[in-house]
Amino acid sequence: MITRTPIGLRAALVAAAAVGWSLGASAQMTTAGTPINNRASVNYSVGGLPQAVIESSPTGNTTPGVGAGVNTSFVVDNLVDLSVSELSGSNTVVTPGVTNAALSFTVVNDGNSPQGYQFAVAEEVGTTLPFGGTDNANIGLANVVVRVDANGNNTYDAADTAAAIDVLNPNQSVTVFIVSPTVPLTLINGNFINLNLQARTAVPGTSGGTLQTASAGVNNPTTVEVLFADPGFDATENASDQFAVQTAGLTITKVQTVLDDGFSAVNPRAIPGATVAYVTTILNTGSIAAQAVSFSDPIPANTTLFPNQFSATGDVGITGGLVATCNADAGDADLDGCGLTAGNLTVSSAVLGSIAGGASVQVQFQVKIN
Amino acid sequence: MSTRTTVLRLAMLAAALGGATTALAQTADRGCIELKTVAEIQETYTDARGNEATRLVPAAKVVPGDEVVWTIVANNVCTTPAGDIAITNPVPQHMRYVGSSAFGPGAQIVFSLDGSTFAAPEALVVAQADGTNRPARADEYSAIRWVLPRPMGPSESLMVRYRATVL
User: Is B34 within 8 Å of A2 when comparing Cβ atoms?
Assistant: First the structure.
């Protein structure tokens, strides 16, 4: 078993930064294929007389004179190193049915030669990300694709169609998305979906199709060999991000109360002529607002709407909506959002508005038993 | 004239024999010192008894961040002593000298920032913007020189070495 002495590149570069080395404008590494040439020289004298300089060669040179030596050379090999990281530092909130929801990652070529990259997505089970809840649902890998940011705006858009990186130059990064074209409707509020993006180094110019392989066998100082230097020495790195599913969930509760039967205020009975109050509560049990909520309720058979019971003029009382009262006029002729149509009381979204997560609205009306 | 020709032929014969070890007199196209530069890297391996050990192997697979061990060997191939020996090696382009890595038995080691003037490390300073000088760092050395304070006898060999990191 032979291993190279692990003189970690990252450690070397960190050390370089610590001692204030100037490694060039961008701390870029020597490009693969660059020859490194070295030639020593010796000055000496014989019998007190200085002699012509002798330069070195790889096998030993005795011919005097500048230029008579031969460089001892090797070429810098292809160091494959990459990093993948989650871009936003937070999860991406999605609602079932939403289109083109995206998780963003950054892929960096930390090597010294252009590389390509191919990608794979994996569902995680039971993992917890630093910024999110524990994974408790799967989105289904058929519902996600990988897309590469084509225009450098770090936002998934129609221009981003490639599923692999053809060529990424050293020290360059690119944003890569896991995209759900349509978030499945089967997901429910409170689902956390952790997805892992794996990037594998590929031969540049193959659209990620041909994976890079580490050179094996006899080393050659004059050829560029491929060497994996990423943390796992497998030219593969990954990172995870999370979809957090938030939906609105409405529950509706209707309570009836006999208010007055004309005989007993203490224990009124549901007899003809009695007044019955209906209180309907619409509760959003989800975590995001339910928007444009509207409400419809048939006036019960054998009853008649008892008008003007709210603030003296309102037929319908609203709590938590956009208005406090409205009139149940035929066909909503007064355009206040409430109306009576074919025996149904209708309350439009102009009255109820949106219901925030955890909030509720109440709709109240009264009828008289015929 | 005829003597010189004979020596020349001997020298050519020696070369044809693949660098015969016989010490020869100096000629116009053959100096008294044979100088060789070798690039190696340190490799860790497991020996026959299962112990981890290191050895130097030819620098073939080298990537940025790796340290290369440069070894320069000087042989006196003449029958006369060679004096005032000074071996000079510029740190190769794309490389940084590794501090305290230069050694050479019996040699005085001096360094250069500009490639032409050499001095001991403590004498090398870099001028700063505020007009003061600071000590030069090892990674700023651009060349290394080994000065041998004694002559090299015939057939004597001298090996010097240093390490440098590929940028």
Answer: no
